[in-house]
Amino acid sequence: MDCYAGNPNTLGRRAQGTKALPTATASGNILFRMSGRGYYTGSWQANNSAAIDIIAAEAFADSATLGAYIAFSTRATGGGTPALTERLRISSLGSLLINGDEGSGTSGKLSITNSVSTGAGSALLGTNSPAGTLAAPFTWLVFYSGTTKVYVPAWT
Length: 156
Prior knowledge:
The protein is mainly β. The chain has two domains: 25-82, no CATH class; 95-156, no CATH class. It contains no helices and 13 strands. The chain has strands at residues 16-17, 22-23, 30-36, 39-40, 43-44, 50-56, 68-74, 85-90, 96-98, 110-114, 121-126, 138-145, 148-155. The strands form three sheets. Strands 3-6-7-8-9-10-11-12-13 form a nine-stranded mixed β-sheet, with no helix packed on it. Strands 1-2 form a two-stranded antiparallel ribbon. The radius of gyration is 20 Å and the shape is extended. The chain starts with 15 loop residues before the first strand and ends with a strand.
């Protein structure tokens, strides 16, 4: 790809409906996907091993509702053909979410959720402070263990 003025661009576009009569993009529609597959004994694999998706975060109703997020997904190693699992997300608000999403009950610029263990475990870095505590200039590192939260202030 060459570009001499402006920015080089790879573009994915998604609409509902048909090519002749497109309708608005729905929340959750993949707008663009980059994925990879490998070759094994005699054939190319039928499913993606990993993917980077740009996904509509809301229904596209007008030029003011165009939110999207980026999801990074992988397939676990060893045996079977499990589905791709989202491992990391850059939310429409700029948060970095690892093994979680906005619906996982955490908020902040960095959220790490341990979805592998049997107990709930995650860490969150954000400006949300516990009730009755110090306000700015602190950023809080929050550790979760089940329903218990431990807040550790971090000066910013």
